[in-house]
Amino acid sequence: MRRGGFIGVLGGIARRFWPRRRALVAAMVAIALLPVEASEAGWLSDVFKGTSKQAKPSKQAKSPKRVASRKPAASPKPAASPKAPGVKLAALGPFGLNPAAFKPAANRCEPAKFRIVLDVGHTAESEGAISARNVSEFVFNLRLAKRIEAKLKAEGFTETRLLLTEGKARRSLFKRVAAANDLPADLLLSIHHDSVPNKLLEDWEFEGKKSRFSDRFSGYSVFVSRDNPDFKTSLSFAELIGKEMKAQGLDYAKQYTLPIMGRYQHPLLNKDTGVYSYDELIVLRKTRMAAALLEAGSIINRDEELKMSSREHQDTISSGVASAVKEFCEPRWGMLGPL
C-alpha cells in the first residue's frame, strides 16, 4: 500500500473513532513524514489492529444517525488492509524481535568502549597452588594477566582492566566480585594455573629443596557457572576461548571428568573445546556480567611448568584470548547478541 492510500485508511479510522482522533491524527502526521519504505513496513498495523478490537463496544453504542453517516463510506477493502504484505515485514523486521536482543549492541562492537576485566586469580596472601619448582600460582597468574592485558590494549580494547585483589582466600573472592560489579564491565575473565588434588602428587627435589609434582595431566581448561545471571553469554565466550586455544595448537585438560578428581570433578560441557561447568565458583556465579575462568595450564606438571614460564607460550595464550574477544565483538554479536 502506498503512503497516500495508507493515510486515507488512517483518516477513515480517525473519523470512525472520534474520541481517539488526536492520537490517530498524530500517527498520520508521523507516517506522512516517514520515507515511503518506512510507511509501507507495516509495523504500525499491529497498533491499529489492537485499536479496532477495543472499538467493538463503541460500535454497539453508536447512535442511528452516526450509523447512517458511516454507511456510504464503509467498504470491506480497507478492513482487509492488515493482511497487506507490510504485516509480514513487521513480523520479520527488527520490531518483531525481542527488544532484549538489542541491549548488548551498545558497546559490544566498539573495542574502544568494550570493557573486559582480567581477574588475577588468588592474592599475595593466598597464593593458590605451588608449582613443581616452588613458585606460587599467583606469580604465574599475575604475569600472564599482564601479558593478556597488553595484548588486548594493543588490539584496541583500551578499556581492559586488570583486577588485583588483596586479602585471604574466601574474603578476597567477594572483594573481587564487588570490584568487578562496580566497574561495570561487559565481560570478566579470571586467570588461573592448574594443579591436581594432593593425593595425586609425588615428591621430588628441585635445587636442593623438597617439592611435589604430578606429570600425569596437562593442558588448559575453561570454566563457566550455570548460575551466572548471563550464563548463555558466559558459555558463548568460554567456547570462543576454548576454540582459540585449540587453534593455537593447545590441548585441554581431560581429567576433570574422572572420579579420581573427587570434589574437583566437573561436567564437561564441550568435549571439543574443553569447557567445563563449575557452578559454585563465586567469581563466576556472583558477577553481574558474563564470566569465564581460564586455567592456562598445569604448573604442577614439570614440563608444562617450563612452558608456562616462557614468554613465547604466554604470548600464544594471550593471542588466543585476544582473538576470542575480537570474535565475540564481531558485528553479528553486536546486532543479535550471542546465539
Quick rundown:
The protein has helices at residues 3-16, 21-33, 36-40, 45-54, 56-61, 64-70, 76-79, 85-92, 137-154, 169-182, 231-247, 282-285, 302-309, 311-328, 331-336, and strands spanning 116-120, 161-163, 187-194, 202-206, 209-213, 221-224, 268-270, 275-277, 290-298.
How are the SSEs ordered, and which strands pair?
Blueprint: H1 3-16, H2 21-33, H3 36-40, H4 45-54, H5 56-61, H6 64-70, H7 76-79, H8 85-92, E1 116-120, H9 137-154, E2 161-163, H10 169-182, E3 187-194, E4 202-206, E5 209-213, E6 221-224, H11 231-247, E7 268-270, E8 275-277, H12 282-285, E9 290-298, H13 302-309, H14 311-328, H15 331-336
Parallel strand pairs: 1-2, 1-3, 3-9, 6-8
Antiparallel strand pairs: 4-5, 6-9, 7-8
Helix pairs in contact: 1-2, 9-14, 11-14
General description of the model:
The chain is α/β, with parallel strands linked by helices and 339 residues long. The chain has 2 domains: 3-96, no CATH class; 103-336, Zn-dependent exopeptidases (Aminopeptidase, 3-Layer(aba) Sandwich), CATH 3.40.630.40. Helices cover 45% and strands 13% of the residues. It contains 15 helices and 9 strands. It has helices spanning 3-16, 21-33, 36-40, 45-54, 56-61, 64-70, 76-79, 85-92, 137-154, 169-182, 231-247, 282-285, 302-309, 311-328, 331-336, and strands at 116-120, 161-163, 187-194, 202-206, 209-213, 221-224, 268-270, 275-277, 290-298. It has a 7-stranded mixed sheet with strand order 2-1-3-9-6-8-7, with helices on both faces. A two-stranded antiparallel sheet has the order 4-5. Helix 1 (3-16) runs antiparallel to helix 2. It is globular, with a radius of gyration of 30 Å. The two termini are 35 Å apart.
